[in-house]
Amino acid sequence: MKKTAPTLRDVAAASNVSIATVSKYINGTQRFSSKVEAAIDAAIAGLGYKSNPLAKSMITGRTDTIGLSVLDITNPHFSSILKGAQRVANDHGLSVLVVDTEENPNRERRVLEDLSRRVDGMIVASRLPEKDMGWMADIDKPLVFFGSLAELPLPTVASDDHGGAFMLTQHLRMLGHKRIAYLGFSKSRRDEERLGGIRECLGAAGLPLVVFNADSPSMLEGERLCSSIILGANPPDALICYNDLMALGFMKEAASLGVSVPRDISVVGFDNIPYGKYVTPALTTVDLQSERMGASAMEKLLAVIRGEDVDKLTKIAPQLVLRASTQPRT
Amino acid sequence: MKKTAPTLRDVAAASNVSIATVSKYINGTQRFSSKVEAAIDAAIAGLGYKSNPLAKSMITGRTDTIGLSVLDITNPHFSSILKGAQRVANDHGLSVLVVDTEENPNRERRVLEDLSRRVDGMIVASRLPEKDMGWMADIDKPLVFFGSLAELPLPTVASDDHGGAFMLTQHLRMLGHKRIAYLGFSKSRRDEERLGGIRECLGAAGLPLVVFNADSPSMLEGERLCSSIILGANPPDALICYNDLMALGFMKEAASLGVSVPRDISVVGFDNIPYGKYVTPALTTVDLQSERMGASAMEKLLAVIRGEDVDKLTKIAPQLVLRASTQPRT
DNA sequence: CTGTTAGCGCTTTCAA
DNA sequence: TTGAAAGCGCTAACAG
Description:
The structure is a homodimer. The first copy, chain A, is of the alpha/beta class. Helices cover about 45% and strands about 15% of the residues of chain A. The relative contact order of chain A is 0.12.
């Protein structure tokens, strides 16, 4: 509506003080005589002045914005992470700039280097193998990474995927399952950790593991691979899916193929997305605490920004959630 | 790693040309002799120079960032909107700054006024009644709004909620349902439109409508209200839910109460979230094309930013999606 | 083709 | 308590 938004200068003029005075007063850097402060307040109100955050940022070097890079925002795991991160950011007066790399590792570098110039720090979920991530440590901005890193000196927040997988497998073993299969997603770094946990548990029991692999961590892939898993010669009596989405897809397709979950096959997943509770049968899963992970990552990042020392790795304990998709064998 | 990031000045010095030349070359505003261009390229590479977008923004007034305000990012309707918006933004080299107002209308104004200073334009979903939205039109930034507006001169993108609701109701009528109920969410502006569509259809047939109301558009609310809906004296034989989330919650609870969907009661929702297809029975719904809405809103906003004339209202046609949660009465 | 010169709106010494 | 002045890193006329 106004031609040009009012600037500090306008406020200064209107209140008959210097521009520096207004700046300091607004930022609470300094107090002034009540006369002056009142005049400034009046001018601000009168002009409808709003500070220009860009100009401020250029000087202070702070943008009050945190970047968050996720692999697919429609995946409930990531929208929960965003929720948690967002909440903490809000509590500190910060905004969140989200980028969705759409499961495309090639985009990541450009996108993140770009992002790094517009934010005070970033939180990133990546599909890159650690050896292709060197550049991340060179980005000159505080960064918190999801997942554990062997070499790279980056602070991280990770769920205990190995432990969670072990737990899940143990649960299946105790239920009496003997032919366990894993429907994995090898492009993910977490896949091998989960596989490791499963193998460790199964190895101790001398049980074999059949592994399938999906091209994307989606319901559609769960559906697509279902028939090849359950209509083979020696089908598994329990299936561990890389995530809940795949498990949901699998269960739906199994039902239409006339295979009953959990009677014919027990199914489990990872993440504990809300929808797992609403399908039939409800899905047994490992709660990786997505929202809390997002919040923890943000808190950690803020600590880094403040210059505090933080642990390299924040581990978040997973929790097994038992539901009807798993059933004892007799 | 470096003390101070290299600036344009450093590049200019290193390549023995003026700072203006470098600026123009980088922005492709102008071409120079290959000698000069080569020198600049070398200097940039050597120093690892990256343009400071903040400084640039301050001058150009453009941030290359679009703000998107949603009511709850974990609601698949909104994460799909974000997905669509994000995709279009990316195609144009823009970022998306997301804010989640958490279904809290009181936060909206502050959050949006704040956001408006950091972006080139914004797309907003709001729970505010139109009469409390006047300030939005005063924000001095291009803005596209979700939903239709009677008075406010804001460009909008809306699904045809009235039409969608009519469709859905018509479908139920043709299936032979006589006792139709609506589980609404009156805080939403779209609620009345849907209610209107339902009423119009039912009125024509001389059928009554019972209305229930939820406090939040969530699965939990669907669950919570289920018993009071189906265990009353004269329970409905069909229920239209404000959205799919509520329908999912309702169906789960109905099952545990021993009421069968669709045998005892048909259930339908709005949005066509992906999960509706994976529950049992699969949910009949109206596809509001969330992702496309996000994309359309972004496209429209970009047009506004470019200064083009745009229609006030972009209407997106809903599509009925028939699944097993609705069944003919006999 | 290339360079000079003003600033953008704000913060921040440093003086008064 | 206040203000003057020097920029932050960059773009945009305007000259040459």
